[in-house]
Amino acid sequence: MDEIHDVVQIGMGSVGLTMAAVMGQTDHSIAVVEKHENLYGLPRAGHIDHEIMRILQSLECHGPVLEDSYPTLEYVWVNADGETLLEFDWGAKGISGWHSDYMQYSPVLEDALAERMRGDPNVDIFQGWAAVELREHDDHVEVVIKKTERVPGVAAPVVTDEARTLRGRYVVAADGANSAVRRWLDIEREDLGFNQKWLVVDARKKRDLHFEFDCGQICDPRRPTTILPLGERHRRWEWALLPGETVEEFERPEVAWRLLGDLGVTPDDVEFVRQLVYTFEARIAQEWKRGRVFLMGDAAHTMPPFMGQGMASGMRDAKNLAWKLDLVLRGLAPAEFLNTYQQERRPHTYDWTVISLEAGKIPGTLDPEAARERDERFRAGWRPPMPDFPQLVGGIMARDLVGQPAAPAGELGLQGRVERDGEAGLFDDLFGAGDQWQVISAVGHPRSVLSDAQIDFLESVGTTFAHVASGVEGDAIDVDGQYAAYFAERGIEVVVNRPDFYVFGGASLEELPALVDELVRQLTVESADQISPVGLSEPESPGDSNLGRPPKEMRTR
Protein backbone atom coordinates (compact mmCIF):
# COMPACT_ATOMS: atom_id res chain seq x y z
CA MET A 1 0.00 0.00 0.00
CA ASP A 2 1.22 3.52 -0.82
CA GLU A 3 2.66 5.78 1.85
CA ILE A 4 0.22 8.23 3.34
CA HIS A 5 -0.14 11.63 1.67
CA ASP A 6 -1.16 14.70 3.58
CA VAL A 7 -3.86 15.40 0.99
CA VAL A 8 -5.39 13.26 -1.73
CA GLN A 9 -7.23 15.39 -4.25
CA ILE A 10 -9.77 14.12 -6.76
CA GLY A 11 -10.18 16.25 -9.87
CA MET A 12 -7.80 18.40 -11.90
CA GLY A 13 -9.91 21.07 -13.58
CA SER A 14 -9.36 24.79 -13.06
CA VAL A 15 -10.25 24.61 -9.35
CA GLY A 16 -8.37 21.38 -8.69
CA LEU A 17 -5.28 22.72 -10.42
CA THR A 18 -5.47 25.83 -8.25
CA MET A 19 -5.75 23.77 -5.08
CA ALA A 20 -2.85 21.51 -6.03
CA ALA A 21 -0.68 24.47 -7.01
CA VAL A 22 -1.39 26.36 -3.78
CA MET A 23 -0.79 23.27 -1.63
CA GLY A 24 2.33 22.59 -3.67
CA GLN A 25 3.85 25.75 -2.20
CA THR A 26 3.81 24.09 1.22
CA ASP A 27 5.94 21.22 2.47
CA HIS A 28 2.99 18.82 2.49
CA SER A 29 2.65 15.80 0.22
CA ILE A 30 -0.22 15.91 -2.27
CA ALA A 31 -1.63 13.21 -4.55
CA VAL A 32 -3.82 14.45 -7.41
CA VAL A 33 -6.14 11.97 -9.13
CA GLU A 34 -7.69 12.74 -12.53
CA LYS A 35 -9.59 10.23 -14.67
CA HIS A 36 -8.55 11.88 -17.93
CA GLU A 37 -5.03 11.31 -19.22
CA ASN A 38 -4.70 14.91 -20.39
CA LEU A 39 -5.96 18.32 -19.38
CA TYR A 40 -9.42 19.19 -20.68
CA GLY A 41 -7.97 21.47 -23.33
CA LEU A 42 -11.27 23.18 -24.17
CA PRO A 43 -12.65 26.47 -22.84
CA ARG A 44 -14.68 26.53 -19.64
CA ALA A 45 -15.28 29.68 -17.59
CA GLY A 46 -14.28 32.86 -19.39
CA HIS A 47 -14.22 35.52 -16.66
CA ILE A 48 -11.75 36.20 -13.88
CA ASP A 49 -11.44 39.28 -11.70
CA HIS A 50 -8.64 41.06 -9.86
CA GLU A 51 -8.88 38.74 -6.86
CA ILE A 52 -8.29 35.69 -9.05
CA MET A 53 -5.41 37.43 -10.81
CA ARG A 54 -3.85 38.02 -7.39
CA ILE A 55 -4.17 34.30 -6.62
CA LEU A 56 -2.39 33.54 -9.90
CA GLN A 57 0.22 36.16 -9.02
CA SER A 58 0.84 34.40 -5.70
CA LEU A 59 1.55 31.23 -7.69
CA GLU A 60 3.84 33.09 -10.12
CA CYS A 61 1.82 31.77 -13.05
CA HIS A 62 -0.15 34.88 -13.97
CA GLY A 63 2.15 35.87 -16.84
CA PRO A 64 0.72 33.63 -19.60
CA VAL A 65 -2.84 34.36 -18.46
CA LEU A 66 -2.24 38.09 -18.45
CA GLU A 67 -0.61 37.96 -21.88
CA ASP A 68 -3.63 36.27 -23.48
CA SER A 69 -6.43 37.77 -21.41
CA TYR A 70 -8.66 40.64 -22.46
CA PRO A 71 -9.13 43.43 -19.87
CA THR A 72 -12.80 44.33 -20.11
CA LEU A 73 -13.95 47.92 -19.72
CA GLU A 74 -17.69 47.35 -19.59
CA TYR A 75 -20.34 44.66 -19.56
CA VAL A 76 -23.32 45.91 -21.59
CA TRP A 77 -26.90 44.64 -21.59
CA VAL A 78 -29.18 45.76 -24.43
CA ASN A 79 -32.80 44.99 -25.29
CA ALA A 80 -34.14 43.56 -28.55
CA ASP A 81 -33.99 47.02 -30.19
CA GLY A 82 -30.38 47.61 -29.20
CA GLU A 83 -31.20 50.10 -26.44
CA THR A 84 -28.77 49.92 -23.54
CA LEU A 85 -30.44 48.76 -20.34
CA LEU A 86 -27.42 48.30 -18.10
CA GLU A 87 -23.69 48.93 -18.17
CA PHE A 88 -21.39 47.40 -15.59
CA ASP A 89 -18.28 49.58 -15.37
CA TRP A 90 -15.32 47.19 -15.38
CA GLY A 91 -12.70 49.76 -16.29
CA ALA A 92 -11.30 50.50 -12.83
CA LYS A 93 -8.39 48.90 -11.01
CA GLY A 94 -9.49 46.43 -8.35
CA ILE A 95 -8.43 46.53 -4.73
CA SER A 96 -6.19 43.50 -5.40
CA GLY A 97 -3.83 45.58 -7.56
CA TRP A 98 -5.03 44.32 -10.92
CA HIS A 99 -7.56 45.46 -13.52
CA SER A 100 -11.08 44.90 -12.23
CA ASP A 101 -12.12 42.17 -14.70
CA TYR A 102 -10.64 40.07 -17.48
CA MET A 103 -11.99 37.70 -20.11
CA GLN A 104 -9.62 34.80 -20.64
CA TYR A 105 -9.27 31.50 -22.49
CA SER A 106 -9.31 28.83 -19.78
CA PRO A 107 -6.94 26.34 -21.50
CA VAL A 108 -4.22 29.00 -21.13
CA LEU A 109 -5.13 29.38 -17.45
CA GLU A 110 -5.12 25.63 -16.86
CA ASP A 111 -1.81 25.13 -18.68
CA ALA A 112 -0.20 27.81 -16.50
CA LEU A 113 -1.56 26.25 -13.30
CA ALA A 114 -0.53 22.75 -14.41
CA GLU A 115 3.01 23.88 -15.15
CA ARG A 116 3.20 25.45 -11.70
CA MET A 117 1.80 22.31 -10.05
CA ARG A 118 4.16 19.97 -11.90
CA GLY A 119 7.11 22.04 -10.76
CA ASP A 120 6.44 21.17 -7.12
CA PRO A 121 8.25 17.96 -6.08
CA ASN A 122 5.77 17.17 -3.30
CA VAL A 123 2.85 16.80 -5.75
CA ASP A 124 2.27 13.28 -7.11
CA ILE A 125 0.01 13.23 -10.18
CA PHE A 126 -2.18 10.28 -11.13
CA GLN A 127 -3.64 11.21 -14.51
CA GLY A 128 -5.56 8.44 -16.23
CA TRP A 129 -6.80 7.10 -12.88
CA ALA A 130 -10.36 7.33 -11.56
CA ALA A 131 -11.35 7.37 -7.89
CA VAL A 132 -13.92 4.62 -7.35
CA GLU A 133 -14.24 4.33 -3.56
CA LEU A 134 -13.53 6.14 -0.28
CA ARG A 135 -12.87 4.40 3.05
CA GLU A 136 -12.61 6.75 6.01
CA HIS A 137 -10.59 5.83 9.10
CA ASP A 138 -9.91 7.69 12.33
CA ASP A 139 -6.73 9.37 11.12
CA HIS A 140 -6.83 9.04 7.32
CA VAL A 141 -8.94 8.21 4.29
CA GLU A 142 -8.27 5.45 1.77
CA VAL A 143 -9.01 6.33 -1.84
CA VAL A 144 -9.29 3.37 -4.19
CA ILE A 145 -8.35 4.36 -7.73
CA LYS A 146 -8.49 2.41 -10.98
CA LYS A 147 -6.64 2.90 -14.23
CA THR A 148 -8.71 4.28 -17.11
CA GLU A 149 -8.40 3.86 -20.85
CA ARG A 150 -9.87 5.44 -23.94
CA VAL A 151 -12.21 3.25 -26.00
CA PRO A 152 -13.06 4.30 -29.58
CA GLY A 153 -16.60 5.62 -29.81
CA VAL A 154 -16.90 6.18 -26.04
CA ALA A 155 -16.65 9.79 -24.87
CA ALA A 156 -15.69 9.22 -21.24
CA PRO A 157 -12.65 7.25 -20.06
CA VAL A 158 -13.44 3.61 -19.29
CA VAL A 159 -12.37 2.20 -15.91
CA THR A 160 -10.21 -0.94 -16.05
CA ASP A 161 -9.54 -3.59 -13.39
CA GLU A 162 -6.07 -2.26 -12.54
CA ALA A 163 -6.39 -0.77 -9.05
CA ARG A 164 -4.34 0.73 -6.28
CA THR A 165 -5.11 2.45 -2.99
CA LEU A 166 -3.95 5.89 -1.93
CA ARG A 167 -4.09 7.10 1.65
CA GLY A 168 -4.50 10.70 2.67
CA ARG A 169 -4.90 12.50 5.95
CA TYR A 170 -7.50 14.57 4.14
CA VAL A 171 -9.34 14.27 0.83
CA VAL A 172 -10.37 17.18 -1.37
CA ALA A 173 -13.09 16.56 -3.96
CA ALA A 174 -12.82 18.95 -6.90
CA ASP A 175 -14.54 16.50 -9.23
CA GLY A 176 -17.13 18.77 -10.78
CA ALA A 177 -20.88 19.33 -10.74
CA ASN A 178 -21.57 15.60 -11.09
CA SER A 179 -19.22 14.85 -8.19
CA ALA A 180 -18.91 11.16 -7.43
CA VAL A 181 -17.55 11.99 -3.98
CA ARG A 182 -20.60 14.08 -3.12
CA ARG A 183 -22.80 11.21 -4.28
CA TRP A 184 -20.87 8.61 -2.26
CA LEU A 185 -21.23 10.74 0.86
CA ASP A 186 -24.93 11.27 0.14
CA ILE A 187 -24.60 15.03 0.54
CA GLU A 188 -27.72 16.88 -0.56
CA ARG A 189 -27.73 20.10 -2.56
CA GLU A 190 -30.03 23.05 -2.09
CA ASP A 191 -31.71 23.97 -5.38
CA LEU A 192 -32.15 27.74 -5.68
CA GLY A 193 -34.60 27.42 -8.52
CA PHE A 194 -32.73 28.15 -11.75
CA ASN A 195 -32.59 25.67 -14.62
CA GLN A 196 -32.06 26.86 -18.20
CA LYS A 197 -30.47 25.23 -21.22
CA TRP A 198 -28.19 27.42 -23.33
CA LEU A 199 -26.16 26.64 -26.44
CA VAL A 200 -22.52 27.65 -25.97
CA VAL A 201 -20.26 28.11 -29.01
CA ASP A 202 -16.56 28.86 -28.56
CA ALA A 203 -14.59 29.83 -31.63
CA ARG A 204 -11.10 30.86 -32.71
CA LYS A 205 -11.00 34.15 -34.56
CA LYS A 206 -9.65 34.13 -38.11
CA ARG A 207 -9.67 37.92 -38.26
CA ASP A 208 -10.64 40.89 -36.11
CA LEU A 209 -14.33 41.08 -35.32
CA HIS A 210 -16.27 44.17 -34.30
CA PHE A 211 -19.70 44.36 -32.70
CA GLU A 212 -21.92 47.06 -31.23
CA PHE A 213 -20.45 46.03 -27.88
CA ASP A 214 -17.70 43.58 -27.12
CA CYS A 215 -18.96 41.95 -23.94
CA GLY A 216 -22.58 41.69 -22.87
CA GLN A 217 -26.13 40.40 -23.11
CA ILE A 218 -28.85 40.83 -25.73
CA CYS A 219 -32.02 40.74 -23.62
CA ASP A 220 -34.33 39.66 -26.44
CA PRO A 221 -37.26 37.44 -25.36
CA ARG A 222 -37.22 35.88 -28.82
CA ARG A 223 -33.72 34.51 -28.09
CA PRO A 224 -31.62 35.76 -25.14
CA THR A 225 -28.01 35.93 -26.33
CA THR A 226 -24.58 36.42 -24.76
CA ILE A 227 -21.55 37.84 -26.60
CA LEU A 228 -18.12 37.54 -24.96
CA PRO A 229 -14.43 37.69 -25.82
CA LEU A 230 -12.32 34.80 -24.54
CA GLY A 231 -8.90 36.35 -24.31
CA GLU A 232 -7.29 37.90 -27.35
CA ARG A 233 -7.81 35.08 -29.86
CA HIS A 234 -11.18 33.52 -29.13
CA ARG A 235 -14.83 34.43 -28.70
CA ARG A 236 -17.90 32.90 -27.09
CA TRP A 237 -21.59 33.14 -27.96
CA GLU A 238 -24.47 31.73 -25.90
CA TRP A 239 -28.14 31.39 -26.84
CA ALA A 240 -31.05 30.31 -24.64
CA LEU A 241 -33.03 27.32 -25.87
CA LEU A 242 -36.72 28.09 -26.23
CA PRO A 243 -39.58 25.82 -25.12
CA GLY A 244 -39.85 22.83 -27.44
CA GLU A 245 -36.25 23.03 -28.70
CA THR A 246 -33.99 20.04 -28.07
CA VAL A 247 -30.36 19.54 -27.13
CA GLU A 248 -29.83 17.27 -30.15
CA GLU A 249 -31.06 19.96 -32.52
CA PHE A 250 -28.88 22.69 -31.04
CA GLU A 251 -25.72 20.64 -31.08
CA ARG A 252 -25.87 20.49 -34.89
CA PRO A 253 -23.30 22.86 -36.47
CA GLU A 254 -25.79 24.26 -38.97
CA VAL A 255 -27.95 25.57 -36.13
CA ALA A 256 -25.00 27.41 -34.59
CA TRP A 257 -24.03 28.90 -37.95
CA ARG A 258 -27.59 30.10 -38.48
CA LEU A 259 -27.59 31.85 -35.12
CA LEU A 260 -24.15 33.35 -35.76
CA GLY A 261 -25.32 34.50 -39.17
CA ASP A 262 -27.98 36.59 -37.47
CA LEU A 263 -25.10 38.43 -35.78
CA GLY A 264 -23.15 38.82 -39.02
CA VAL A 265 -20.60 36.10 -38.26
CA THR A 266 -19.64 33.61 -40.99
CA PRO A 267 -17.16 30.74 -41.44
CA ASP A 268 -14.78 33.31 -42.91
CA ASP A 269 -14.62 34.96 -39.48
CA VAL A 270 -14.20 32.07 -37.04
CA GLU A 271 -13.66 28.34 -36.69
CA PHE A 272 -15.43 26.36 -34.00
CA VAL A 273 -13.51 25.07 -30.99
CA ARG A 274 -16.54 23.70 -29.17
CA GLN A 275 -20.33 23.56 -29.50
CA LEU A 276 -22.29 22.26 -26.53
CA VAL A 277 -25.61 22.74 -24.77
CA TYR A 278 -25.14 23.54 -21.07
CA THR A 279 -27.73 23.48 -18.32
CA PHE A 280 -27.27 26.58 -16.20
CA GLU A 281 -28.35 25.83 -12.64
CA ALA A 282 -28.04 27.17 -9.11
CA ARG A 283 -27.31 24.51 -6.51
CA ILE A 284 -25.20 24.52 -3.39
CA ALA A 285 -24.17 21.58 -1.21
CA GLN A 286 -25.62 21.46 2.29
CA GLU A 287 -22.29 20.20 3.62
CA TRP A 288 -18.86 21.16 2.31
CA LYS A 289 -16.99 19.04 4.86
CA ARG A 290 -17.80 15.53 6.01
CA GLY A 291 -15.20 14.09 8.37
CA ARG A 292 -11.87 14.31 6.57
CA VAL A 293 -13.39 14.98 3.14
CA PHE A 294 -13.98 18.42 1.61
CA LEU A 295 -15.98 19.53 -1.43
CA MET A 296 -14.92 22.51 -3.51
CA GLY A 297 -15.68 24.16 -6.82
CA ASP A 298 -18.59 22.78 -8.84
CA ALA A 299 -18.72 19.76 -6.53
CA ALA A 300 -19.92 22.17 -3.83
CA HIS A 301 -21.74 24.83 -5.85
CA THR A 302 -23.01 25.74 -9.30
CA MET A 303 -24.41 29.10 -10.37
CA PRO A 304 -25.63 30.78 -13.56
CA PRO A 305 -22.81 32.49 -15.49
CA PHE A 306 -24.29 35.97 -15.71
CA MET A 307 -21.80 37.50 -13.23
CA GLY A 308 -18.89 35.24 -14.17
CA GLN A 309 -18.26 34.05 -10.61
CA GLY A 310 -18.60 30.26 -10.80
CA MET A 311 -14.97 29.26 -11.39
CA ALA A 312 -13.78 32.28 -9.41
CA SER A 313 -15.73 31.05 -6.39
CA GLY A 314 -14.07 27.65 -6.73
CA MET A 315 -10.62 29.22 -6.87
CA ARG A 316 -11.49 31.14 -3.71
CA ASP A 317 -12.46 27.81 -2.12
CA ALA A 318 -8.99 26.49 -2.91
CA LYS A 319 -7.13 29.50 -1.55
CA ASN A 320 -9.24 29.42 1.63
CA LEU A 321 -8.90 25.73 2.40
CA ALA A 322 -5.21 25.46 1.52
CA TRP A 323 -3.91 27.81 4.22
CA LYS A 324 -6.13 26.17 6.82
CA LEU A 325 -4.98 22.66 5.92
CA ASP A 326 -1.39 23.91 6.10
CA LEU A 327 -1.81 25.13 9.68
CA VAL A 328 -3.56 21.96 10.82
CA LEU A 329 -1.05 19.65 9.14
CA ARG A 330 1.79 21.60 10.79
CA GLY A 331 0.13 21.22 14.19
CA LEU A 332 -0.41 24.97 14.57
CA ALA A 333 -4.21 24.70 14.66
CA PRO A 334 -6.54 21.92 15.82
CA ALA A 335 -8.40 19.75 13.32
CA GLU A 336 -11.68 21.42 14.28
CA PHE A 337 -10.29 24.65 12.83
CA LEU A 338 -11.11 23.22 9.39
CA ASN A 339 -14.81 23.64 10.14
CA THR A 340 -14.35 27.32 9.32
CA TYR A 341 -13.95 26.38 5.64
CA GLN A 342 -17.69 25.83 5.21
CA GLN A 343 -18.49 28.56 7.73
CA GLU A 344 -16.74 31.11 5.51
CA ARG A 345 -17.06 29.85 1.97
CA ARG A 346 -20.69 28.66 1.85
CA PRO A 347 -22.31 32.02 2.76
CA HIS A 348 -19.94 33.90 0.45
CA THR A 349 -20.71 31.61 -2.48
CA TYR A 350 -24.41 31.56 -1.64
CA ASP A 351 -24.47 35.36 -1.93
CA TRP A 352 -22.70 35.25 -5.29
CA THR A 353 -25.22 32.67 -6.47
CA VAL A 354 -28.14 34.89 -5.48
CA ILE A 355 -26.55 37.86 -7.26
CA SER A 356 -26.09 35.71 -10.38
CA LEU A 357 -29.72 34.58 -10.18
CA GLU A 358 -30.99 38.15 -9.86
CA ALA A 359 -28.80 39.24 -12.76
CA GLY A 360 -30.02 36.33 -14.89
CA LYS A 361 -33.65 37.35 -14.52
CA ILE A 362 -33.04 40.44 -16.68
CA PRO A 363 -31.80 38.82 -19.91
CA GLY A 364 -33.44 35.45 -19.31
CA THR A 365 -37.11 36.38 -19.68
CA LEU A 366 -38.89 34.77 -22.64
CA ASP A 367 -42.22 36.56 -22.15
CA PRO A 368 -42.52 39.45 -24.68
CA GLU A 369 -44.93 41.41 -22.49
CA ALA A 370 -42.71 41.04 -19.42
CA ALA A 371 -39.72 42.14 -21.52
CA ARG A 372 -41.64 45.20 -22.77
CA GLU A 373 -42.53 46.18 -19.20
CA ARG A 374 -38.91 45.64 -18.15
CA ASP A 375 -37.69 47.94 -20.92
CA GLU A 376 -40.17 50.65 -19.93
CA ARG A 377 -38.98 50.51 -16.32
CA PHE A 378 -35.37 50.92 -17.42
CA ARG A 379 -36.29 53.85 -19.67
CA ALA A 380 -37.93 55.47 -16.65
CA GLY A 381 -34.68 55.21 -14.69
CA TRP A 382 -35.39 52.07 -12.68
CA ARG A 383 -32.42 49.95 -11.69
CA PRO A 384 -32.63 46.44 -10.23
CA PRO A 385 -32.02 46.00 -6.49
CA MET A 386 -28.71 44.19 -6.94
CA PRO A 387 -27.18 43.09 -3.62
CA ASP A 388 -23.77 44.31 -2.53
CA PHE A 389 -20.89 42.14 -3.62
CA PRO A 390 -20.17 39.59 -0.87
CA GLN A 391 -17.59 39.69 1.86
CA LEU A 392 -16.90 37.14 4.58
CA VAL A 393 -19.42 37.19 7.40
CA GLY A 394 -18.25 34.31 9.60
CA GLY A 395 -15.14 32.39 10.53
CA ILE A 396 -11.67 33.73 11.24
CA MET A 397 -11.95 37.48 11.68
CA ALA A 398 -12.11 40.20 14.33
CA ARG A 399 -15.62 40.86 15.62
CA ASP A 400 -17.47 43.58 17.44
CA LEU A 401 -19.39 43.22 20.70
CA VAL A 402 -22.44 41.67 19.03
CA GLY A 403 -20.43 39.16 17.01
CA GLN A 404 -20.49 40.95 13.66
CA PRO A 405 -17.30 41.48 11.62
CA ALA A 406 -15.49 44.52 13.03
CA ALA A 407 -14.85 46.57 9.91
CA PRO A 408 -12.76 46.15 7.84
CA ALA A 409 -12.73 42.45 8.83
CA GLY A 410 -14.13 40.24 6.09
CA GLU A 411 -13.32 42.63 3.28
CA LEU A 412 -10.89 41.80 0.53
CA GLY A 413 -7.56 43.34 1.46
CA LEU A 414 -5.60 45.93 -0.49
CA GLN A 415 -2.57 45.22 -2.64
CA GLY A 416 -1.06 48.52 -3.72
CA ARG A 417 2.08 49.58 -5.52
CA VAL A 418 5.07 50.23 -3.29
CA GLU A 419 8.74 51.03 -3.69
CA ARG A 420 11.24 48.94 -1.77
CA ASP A 421 15.03 49.24 -2.04
CA GLY A 422 14.65 51.36 -5.15
CA GLU A 423 12.33 48.94 -6.94
CA ALA A 424 8.64 49.70 -7.54
CA GLY A 425 6.00 47.01 -7.89
CA LEU A 426 3.03 45.30 -6.30
CA PHE A 427 3.31 44.63 -2.56
CA ASP A 428 3.12 40.82 -2.76
CA ASP A 429 5.93 40.66 -5.32
CA LEU A 430 8.35 42.92 -3.47
CA PHE A 431 7.70 41.35 -0.06
CA GLY A 432 7.23 37.74 -1.24
CA ALA A 433 3.99 37.77 0.66
CA GLY A 434 1.45 36.17 -1.67
CA ASP A 435 0.96 33.10 0.52
CA GLN A 436 1.47 34.63 3.97
CA TRP A 437 -0.27 36.57 6.66
CA GLN A 438 0.41 40.28 6.31
CA VAL A 439 0.64 42.87 9.09
CA ILE A 440 0.88 46.27 7.42
CA SER A 441 1.07 49.58 9.26
CA ALA A 442 0.91 53.17 8.06
CA VAL A 443 2.36 54.88 11.16
CA GLY A 444 5.19 52.74 12.51
CA HIS A 445 6.63 49.26 12.29
CA PRO A 446 4.14 46.68 13.60
CA ARG A 447 6.89 44.71 15.35
CA SER A 448 7.56 47.72 17.60
CA VAL A 449 4.37 47.21 19.63
CA LEU A 450 4.26 43.40 19.71
CA SER A 451 5.74 41.09 22.34
CA ASP A 452 8.38 38.51 21.48
CA ALA A 453 5.78 35.77 22.00
CA GLN A 454 3.37 37.43 19.57
CA ILE A 455 6.09 37.89 16.96
CA ASP A 456 7.19 34.27 17.40
CA PHE A 457 3.64 33.06 16.84
CA LEU A 458 3.12 35.20 13.77
CA GLU A 459 6.42 34.05 12.32
CA SER A 460 5.50 30.42 12.98
CA VAL A 461 2.34 30.71 10.88
CA GLY A 462 4.19 32.67 8.19
CA THR A 463 3.80 36.44 8.38
CA THR A 464 5.16 39.44 6.52
CA PHE A 465 5.51 42.64 8.58
CA ALA A 466 5.69 45.98 6.81
CA HIS A 467 5.57 49.70 7.52
CA VAL A 468 4.33 51.36 4.33
CA ALA A 469 4.70 55.13 4.46
CA SER A 470 4.57 58.14 2.17
CA GLY A 471 8.27 58.83 2.71
CA VAL A 472 11.48 56.90 3.22
CA GLU A 473 10.92 56.24 6.93
CA GLY A 474 9.10 52.93 6.32
CA ASP A 475 10.02 49.56 4.85
CA ALA A 476 8.40 50.68 1.61
CA ILE A 477 7.09 53.84 0.01
CA ASP A 478 3.38 54.11 -0.73
CA VAL A 479 3.89 54.94 -4.42
CA ASP A 480 0.35 55.92 -5.37
CA GLY A 481 -0.95 56.83 -1.93
CA GLN A 482 -3.30 53.84 -1.95
CA TYR A 483 -2.37 52.63 1.51
CA ALA A 484 -2.73 56.10 3.04
CA ALA A 485 -6.19 56.44 1.50
CA TYR A 486 -7.15 52.90 2.52
CA PHE A 487 -6.22 53.40 6.17
CA ALA A 488 -7.81 56.86 6.33
CA GLU A 489 -11.11 55.70 4.82
CA ARG A 490 -11.37 52.93 7.40
CA GLY A 491 -10.13 54.88 10.41
CA ILE A 492 -7.31 52.43 11.15
CA GLU A 493 -3.51 52.50 11.30
CA VAL A 494 -2.68 48.83 10.84
CA VAL A 495 -4.32 45.90 9.07
CA VAL A 496 -3.89 42.14 9.44
CA ASN A 497 -4.55 40.28 6.19
CA ARG A 498 -5.00 36.53 5.89
CA PRO A 499 -3.17 34.30 3.38
CA ASP A 500 -6.29 34.30 1.17
CA PHE A 501 -6.10 38.13 1.06
CA TYR A 502 -9.17 38.74 3.22
CA VAL A 503 -8.86 41.08 6.18
CA PHE A 504 -8.71 39.52 9.64
CA GLY A 505 -8.95 42.91 11.29
CA GLY A 506 -7.84 46.51 11.47
CA ALA A 507 -6.91 48.70 14.44
CA SER A 508 -4.76 51.52 15.68
CA LEU A 509 -1.11 50.63 16.15
CA GLU A 510 -1.65 50.76 19.91
CA GLU A 511 -4.49 48.21 19.60
CA LEU A 512 -2.48 45.80 17.44
CA PRO A 513 -1.36 43.57 20.36
CA ALA A 514 -5.00 42.95 21.32
CA LEU A 515 -5.85 42.19 17.70
CA VAL A 516 -3.00 39.67 17.49
CA ASP A 517 -4.09 38.06 20.76
CA GLU A 518 -7.54 37.59 19.22
CA LEU A 519 -5.97 36.05 16.13
CA VAL A 520 -3.98 33.62 18.27
CA ARG A 521 -7.14 32.66 20.13
CA GLN A 522 -9.13 32.02 16.97
CA LEU A 523 -6.39 29.93 15.37
CA THR A 524 -6.05 27.70 18.41
CA VAL A 525 -9.61 27.13 19.67
CA GLU A 526 -10.91 23.60 19.29
CA SER A 527 -14.22 24.47 17.64
CA ALA A 528 -15.40 27.11 15.21
CA ASP A 529 -18.39 27.58 17.51
CA GLN A 530 -16.02 28.93 20.18
CA ILE A 531 -15.01 31.85 17.97
CA SER A 532 -17.19 34.47 19.63
CA PRO A 533 -16.91 38.23 20.19
CA VAL A 534 -14.43 39.39 22.80
CA GLY A 535 -15.19 43.10 22.66
CA LEU A 536 -12.80 44.45 20.06
CA SER A 537 -13.52 48.13 19.50
CA GLU A 538 -14.79 49.46 16.19
CA PRO A 539 -12.58 51.86 14.20
CA GLU A 540 -13.64 55.48 14.57
CA SER A 541 -14.43 55.83 10.86
CA PRO A 542 -14.84 52.41 9.27
CA GLY A 543 -15.92 53.71 5.88
CA ASP A 544 -17.93 51.58 3.51
CA SER A 545 -17.45 48.02 4.69
CA ASN A 546 -20.18 46.46 2.57
CA LEU A 547 -17.93 45.44 -0.27
CA GLY A 548 -14.84 43.29 -0.41
CA ARG A 549 -13.70 45.13 -3.54
CA PRO A 550 -14.44 48.43 -5.25
CA PRO A 551 -18.02 48.24 -6.57
CA LYS A 552 -18.63 47.72 -10.25
CA GLU A 553 -20.71 50.75 -11.09
CA MET A 554 -24.06 49.86 -12.64
CA ARG A 555 -25.56 52.60 -14.77
CA THR A 556 -28.90 52.83 -16.55
CA ARG A 557 -29.69 54.77 -19.68
Provide a concise account of the structure shown.
The protein has 557 residues and is of the alpha+beta class.
What does this structure look like?
The protein is globular. Mean pLDDT is 93; it is low at 533-557. 27% of the residues lie in helices and 29% in strands. By secondary structure, the chain is an alpha+beta fold. The longest helix is centred in the middle third of the chain and has 25 residues, at 340-364. The chain has 14 helices and 27 strands. It starts with a strand and ends with a strand. The strands form 4 sheets. The chain has a 9-stranded mixed beta sheet, with helices on both faces. Strands 1, 2, 8, 9, 10, 11, 17 and 18 form an 8-stranded mixed beta sheet that branches. It has 3 domains: 5-72 and 94-189 and 285-359, FAD/NAD(P)-binding domain, CATH 3.50.50; 193-281, D-Amino Acid Oxidase, subunit A, domain 2 (D-Amino Acid Oxidase, Chain A, domain 2); 411-524, Glutaredoxin, CATH 3.40.30.
